[in-house]
Amino acid sequence: MIPESDEPAAPTPVFFVAGGTGISAETLGNMMLQQFPSVSFTRRKIPFVTTVQQAQAVVAELDAAVTDSVVPLVFSTVSDEDIRAELQKTQCAFIDLFGSHLDTVERVLHVNATHGVGALHGVGDKGRYDARMKAIEFAMEHDDGASLRNLEQADLILVAPSRCGKTPTSMYLALQHGLKVANYPLVDEDFAAGGLPRPIQGLVDRCYGLLSTPARLSQVRGERRPGSTYASLAQCSFELRRAEALYRAHRIPAINSASMSVEEMAAVIMQTSRLDNLG
After folding, report:
1. Is residue 278 in some structural domain?
2. Is 221 annotated as a binding residue?
């Protein structure tokens, strides 16, 4: 256990270095950083490091951030062995999220990895990549009830009052998991009718509800329409109560988005809807 100091520490520089987009390095690195809520960080992503010469320039940038009191952290998902070896020359604390784990997988599978950037980010699997792109197009077309065309093709339909997180969750599930996700907004007319909205009546088995807290929903809506009835605490409370009753009446599973990240919500939705074994 490292003893804590009463002196305020300077922010620790954190670098996410990758041969591709850097999404994996950033996601995995931030998962670790979340375990240190008392520490402040500055973050910089350095993607598309694909040559040794680029790696040398990156090392120079990394080492320039080293001070007598602060050692930067570097999270790397670079797969190329020569580039990775060059990056490891840095004076920073280098966390290789790829190399040692890849060795283990190679031993288990008795097959050498290609060490290709495309393979790491899924471009090498053209079928999977195409499926993700089609899923994104589907999510965009069916965002916020904009289109009801081919709604029966949806793997999942997110149902919720406005500003409960339908759009970002739909896009994340499409981009990361290739799921065709539509989202349908619950509006005053739906609450007045009392039943399930007609466009999704025959698709209740694919529906998943999102909720929030009245205070959080009012805050989010207030950023868009400050001082409006739409953003009032009373209106938000009413819509959330009616939405919850609707989910309960039709046995639609639901999740509260108020204090959850999109990644957490996606994981829970996929698990409880048994979508984590598709594709």
Report:
1. no
2. no
- Please report, for the domain that includes residue 108, its CATH number: 3.40.50
Reported as a single tens digit per residue, the pLDDT across 97-117 is 887 677 777 788 878 776 655
104 is in an annotated binding site: no
- Residue 11 assigned ligand-binding role: no
CB atoms within 10 A of CB 14: 24
Count structural domains, the chain: 2
Same domain? 194 vs 221: yes
162 is in an annotated binding site: yes
222 is in an annotated binding site: no
Known binder of ligand: residue 279? no
Domain extent for 140:
126-272
d(CA 264, CA 37): 18
Q: pLDDT tens, 199-221?
A: 999 999 999 999 999 999 999 99
Residue 164 is labelled as binding a ligand: yes
Give the C-alpha separation, 71 to 12, whole Å. 7
- Which tokens in the block code for residue 73? 């952290």
CB 40 within 8 A of CB 68: no
The per-residue pLDDT for 265 is: 92
Q: What is the pLDDT of residues 115-150, one digit of tens each?
A: 655 544 444 557 777 888 899 999 999 998 898 888
Binding site annotation covers 225?
A: no
User: What average pLDDT does the segment 72-87 reach?
Assistant: 93
